[in-house]
Amino acid sequence: MPTHREIRLRTRPERGLPAPEHLALVQTDLPVPAPGEVLVRNRWFAVSAAVRTLIGGGLKGAPFPPLEPGDPLVGAAVGEVVSAPDDSGLRPGDLVSHWHGWREYAAVPAAGRTPLGDSLPDPVAHLSQGRTAYAALTRGTEVRAGDTVLVTGGAGAVGTMAGQIARLLGAGRVIGSTGSPAKAERLVTELGYDAVVVRGAPASFPAQLAEAAPEGVDVLLDTVGGEQLSAAVAAARPGARAVLVGALSGQLDPEGTGATARVELDSYPLVLKRVSLRGFSPLDHPETEAEWRGRFGDWLRAGEITFPHVRVAGMDRAAEALREVMEGRHLGTVVVELP
């Protein structure tokens, strides 16, 4: 029987972040599509810190169940249709996106799969987290002309897109945060950030934020939580709007499980300055998918936006790529490219 390779969870770490030794690259039978399914040969898949939460036991209400030892990892992928039901509208060779990454072949439901076509000049750009940033900034906070926008985790998959999108939507000043001076320089020189607060710098995070945004923050797109969220709330201007789209402080906590992200907030600023604070998911705004894809394609072709990403070649390097993501070695999205 034909076979393929996939990355499975070998064992959960007893302590600390997942490492390559907790994963296994296994040869297994090629998936056989059930009725109504499409067989896809994956070409690219994204490596995300969010998988740490699934490895650690998951969260109630999350879109994916926890991973058990022996389960293949999951994540966003783009692949080429090998076979499809006659009534699916799909043909061999069509590129489609789905959530069964970390494997060479996948059987996925045909429902909801549409050919990606040439809507974006590079198919890999479909793995961008720009839609999350776009939906958060247009639906969650409704960025206005002249707003001062703070994006925590500015060097991550969401953050590298969010700063650029905020600028294109009319923000007057865009501030990011990151843990590396080298990344901070790239955010300013390559991605249009006006200033970057560096976690762990000699000056405290609140002091750096006060210098970067002396008049306060109008919009917060938070991917981190923790002390950065606390500092942002303290720096909020009257009527500020904040959306929480991630919790990297918990996902990357070596002392935790990736399933909690605790934060201490002073509620007085929220009340006195009428600050809105809400959790946000683009899944609640399905109309943004086509809207984002259209605007993203136009911006890419016009050279008004870039998709910062790192390509890693082959399944053999996928486990190490996850370690590198957990350690914050890269800027932007990390993509495994399959031959």
UniProtKB/TrEMBL annotation:
It comes from the Bacteria. Residues 16-336 form the Enoyl reductase (ER) domain. CDD domains: PGDH. One of its GO terms (molecular function) is oxidoreductase activity. This is Alcohol dehydrogenase. It comes from Streptomyces vietnamensis.
